[in-house]
Every structure is written in structure tokens, then in C-alpha cells.
Amino acid sequence: MINYDLTKIRMIAFDVDGVLSSGTIMLHPEGEPMRTVNIKDGYAIQLAVRLGLRIAIITGGKTNSVYKRYTGLGVEDVYMGCSVKINTYDGLLKKYNIKDDEVMYMGDDIPDYEIMRRCGCPVCPADACPDIKDISIYISDRNGGHGCGRDVIEQVLRAQGKWLNGREAFGW
């Protein structure tokens, strides 16, 4: 269980590679990186969006398939090609008038470090690098790309009384 007051979380932001996809990338013959995604993560993301929780994607990757996947789930804030992620994070806080302690961020590697030091609820997958695990208040028992996104979203929605509460929970 996440040791944080999850009732105050207004936004969950995710890295993609190593978090919402596994740490391994297959290369298409044309050179584009190909990623796998977890269906249960997808269900939880779209449900959270429909229930009013702000979901954001902040990734260094630039592939169109990632953009299509998350906008297709209703995510409005998909930021690609972020070489310094803290700048995007600061813009999101300002855009939605959100405070650091209202944000959960799930990352797995050094590019996520600055955000995770600032946000109220830094979390990571089981296979995150040691530096990220050291600053996380919760380490999922699931690896990146294998349901860690669902794990944390479900905990937030349960804490907020929104999980399995109402007709919205039973559809896509």
C-alpha cells in the first residue's frame, strides 16, 4: 500500500519506457522503436480519466504509436520528446493550478529523478534503477510494462472512493 494521503492526488504523471512499457524495445525494420503495453494499465488509465483524475504522459520518446495509444485512452496531456522532464512538469502544474503534493509521478530511471524529488508522491515499478527506488515512497510489486500503472491508479481510485463505485467502472 502507498503510504501517502491519496485522497489529495489530482494528477498522476507517467514515464513510458520502463514504466508503461517494458524496459526492452524491439526495433521495427524501418528503425522505429516498438513497445508493448499492458491492457490492464490501459483500462485503469481510461477509467481514471473518465472519473476526473488528470493523467499525464511525460516521455523522452517520440513515436507516433505512443501518442496514439494514450490519446486514444482519453489522455489530454501527452508530452513527447521531453529531454528535461521537469520543465514539462512545471508547465503542467501551472496549466492546471496543481501543487506538488497533489501529484503522483511514476518513473523508473534518472531522467525522472528531478520530478520525483519534487512531487508529493513519487512511485516506481519493481525494476526501477536503484537511485529511483531510493527516492520513491512506494515500489510496485510489478515491473514496468506489467501492470504497475494499474497498481497505483487503482490504489488512488480506491482511496478516493471511486473504484467500482458507479456505472463508469464497468465499461471502456
UniProtKB/TrEMBL annotation:
Protein name as annotated: HAD-IIIA family hydrolase
Cofactor(s) required, per the database record: Mg(2+)
InterPro entries assigned: CMP-NeuNAc_synthase, HAD-like_sf, HAD_sf, KdsC_fam
Quaternary organization: Homotetramer.
Stored NCBIfam families: KdsC-phosphatas (TIGR01670)
UniProt-recorded Gene Ontology molecular function terms: hydrolase activity
Gene source species: Xylanibacter rodentium
Family (UniProt): Belongs to the KdsC family.
Record-linked CDD domains: HAD_KDO-like
Coiled coil: none
SUPFAM superfamilies: HAD-like
PANTHER family membership: HAD SUPERFAMILY MEMBERS CMAS AND KDSC (PTHR21485), N-ACYLNEURAMINATE CYTIDYLYLTRANSFERASE (PTHR21485:SF3)
Entry annotated with the keyword Transmembrane helix: no
Pfam families: Hydrolase_3
